[in-house]
Amino acid sequence: MSAAMETPAMPEDEADASGAHPIFANAPRSVEFNKLRKRLIRNVREALDKFAMVRPGEKWLIALSGGKDSYGLLALLLDLKWRGLLPVELLACNLDQGQPNFPKHILPEFLTGLGIEHRIEYQDTYSIVTDKLPAGATYCSLCSRLRRGNLYRIAREEGCSALVLGHHRDDSLETFFMNLFHGGKLAAMPPKLVNDEGDLEVLRPLIYCAEEDLQRFSDAMAFPIIPCDLCGSQDGLQRNVTKAMLTDMEKAMPGRKDVMIRALGNINPSHMLDPRLFDFAGLSIQPKE
Questions:
Q1: Is the residue at 158 inside a domain?
Q2: Is residue 93 within a helix (H) or strand (E), and if so which, with residue range?
Q3: Residues forming the annotated binding site for [4Fe-4S] cluster?
Q4: Per-residue pLDDT at 1 exceeds 50
């Protein structure tokens, strides 16, 4: 396997250069949108470089749910690839999980119309979730596990080395606080991991991207959004409570989310309480001569 690669430098005005992937054909030409696009591209490239995600010649499976984050992920990666800055093959994949009233035509028409390589897979995990869980239970955990297992299978079938997900900065922070408050541990969403079988990587190139930026990007690009009626409509989820807390914190102290995501990459083990990470037993004073 080839060594990790740092992507080439891109001039600050490169995002305004003539020519772009067809997904940007109807994108706004405003200064505001160009600034937003540059910022998101810069965030993605920082994650790709810092966490050594790119190995030239490999193939990535891009999980596409039809939500704003996965659309943004696909568009930004296609943008980088179009400019010769992402030397990997991209395959978009939507897993139709059999949810009632799921609009099956939207993603195939969108992807085919833009000439984007893709695979649409149908697996009725919705019936499994509703059969195994009582009415009123939270579906997210089981639904996510079933979806991830199918995506791993598809990645193997397609010869992909990595499954690429659209989790962003806010997702990682919410996970961190949920683990802190409810799990009694310090852990967030990792930008890069290897699955339990050891044969696939999971990558999160949007890990430094703000959800607010991705929402503005999605609105400007007019993506055909497919709402998640299975889990998105459930009230009272711990994640929703945590999201509201972080939103209030950001309103009271603007910029805190950016500070917190940077803090997750600036850890001092000797100032924590975990002897597995720091040899407290080995600490000793030096006798005076």
A1: yes
A2: strand 89-96
A3: 140, 143, 231
A4: no
Report the distance separating Cα 147 and Cα 95, nearest Å.
7
Strand order in the sheet with 201-203: 118-122, 89-96, 59-63, 162-164, 201-203, 192-194
Give how many domains the chain has, as a whole number.
1
Higher pLDDT, 38 or 232: 38
Identity of the residue numbered 91: L
Distance CA 189, CA 133 (A): 26
Its pTM stands at 0.88
Q: Are 4 and 55 in contact (CB under 8 A)?
A: yes
Whether residue 125 contacts residue 140, with contact meaning beta carbons closer than 8 Å, is answered with: no
DSSP state of 28: -
User: Binding-site residues, please?
Assistant: 140, 143, 231
Rounded to an integer, what distance in angstroms lies between the CA atom of residue 58 and that of residue 179? 33
Section 196-209 average pLDDT: 97
What integer best gives the mean pLDDT of the chain? 89
- What per-residue confidence (pLDDT) applies to 2? 38
Does any domain span residue 142?
yes
Domain membership flag for residue 178: yes
Q: How far is CA 258 from CA 66, 68, 96, 169, in A?
A: 26, 20, 34, 8
Which distant-in-sequence residues (6+ apart) come within 8 Å of 150 by Cβ?
95, 121, 123, 125
Closest to 158 in 3D by CA, of 55, 59, 56, 53: 59
Contact 88/81 with Cβ under 8 angstroms? yes
pLDDT band at 80 (very low <50, low <70, confident <90, very high): very high
Calculate the dihedral angle through the C-alpha atoms of 100, 104, 110, 112, rounding to the nearest 10 degrees: 160
Task: Kindly state whether residue 10 falls inside one of the protein's structural domains.
Answer: no
CATH assignment of the domain containing 195: 3.40.50.620
Strands (E), 148-200: 162-164, 192-194
